[in-house]
Amino acid sequence: SPAAPGTSLPRTLLGPNGTALPSPSKSLNDRVGLLRGDITTLAVDAIVNAANRSLLGGGGVDGAIHRIAGRRLYEECRTLGGCATGSAKMTDAYGLPCRKVIHAVGPVYDPLDHDGSERLLTGCYTRSLELAVAGADGGCRSVAFSALSTGIYGYPSREAAPAALSAIRAFLEGPDGVKIDMVVIVTYEKKDVDAYNEFVPLYFPPV
Ligand code: AR6
Questions:
Q1: Whose CA is nearest to atom 34 of ligand 1?
Q2: What region holds the Macro domain (predicted)?
Q3: Torsions phi, psi of 194, nearest 5?
């Protein structure tokens, strides 16, 4: 039906790939936050680790998470049988202040296969949010993501940020989106801060 006289029609917003984004909404924007700092300190329901296929720990944020969570996290991870790239598995958080850890395995960035890398990276974000809402004890309503693949795995931050944001936004607008109260994107290095400052207003435009 046509808009009533005097009401403004929604603007059409274009994402970086030229596809139209739905009009902004305050209830959507209020559920996404950007934070620079150490993800291991956050008392959210779930933090998302940048893991590798073994799920047995490593460097970067994975090393920091395992160091603080302690030996019991390693022991639980050993029972999981690894994880495919582009997917994720959830564990308890042990010595960490959060309730759960979602271990996502991002791709090693392949400059010759941008689309394949992007599909795997967005898969991590989508699967992590699926695990969060399906999690025990009523699900994880607050989820903090580290900037998957942008460290040791070499994914350029300005390409990773829009992929992450489009996956997060699609999930929040999907059928299970209402089961998430808050997504916090945790940046650590300046290049990721800059990338998210650039792209958050595109994917979650001010209303
Ligand atoms: N809190 C938040 N973010 C952090 C922290 C922290 N404490 N420490 C680093 N980052 P990376 P990847 C950021 O390298 O690229 C491991 O060895 C960092 O600045 O941790 O997915 C795994 O076992 C970057 O933006 O993960 C895998 O083998 C982001 O976390 C491999 O590295 C991810 O960087 C995974 O590589």
A1: 151
A2: 19-204
A3: -60, -45
Encoded tokens for 152: 């040791």
Give the pLDDT band of residue 27 (cuts 50, 70, 90). confident
Residue 51 Cα, ligand 1 centroid: separation in angstroms?
A: 8
Q: Report CA(125)–ligand 1 centroid distance (Å).
A: 15
Q: For residues 85 and 88, give the distance between their C-alpha atoms in angstroms, rounded to a whole number.
A: 8
**What tokens appear for 81 in the block?**
């049988």
Radius of gyration of the chain (CA): 17
Residues 121, 155: contact at Cβ < 8 Å? yes
Residue 10 clears pLDDT 90, i.e. is over it: no
- Tell me: ipTM over 0.90: yes
Residues 171 and 165: their CA atoms lie apart, in Å, by 10
Exposure string over 167-192, b if 16+ CB within 10 A, otherwise e = bbbebbeeeebebbeebbbbbbeeeb
pLDDT band at 47 (very low <50, low <70, confident <90, very high): very high
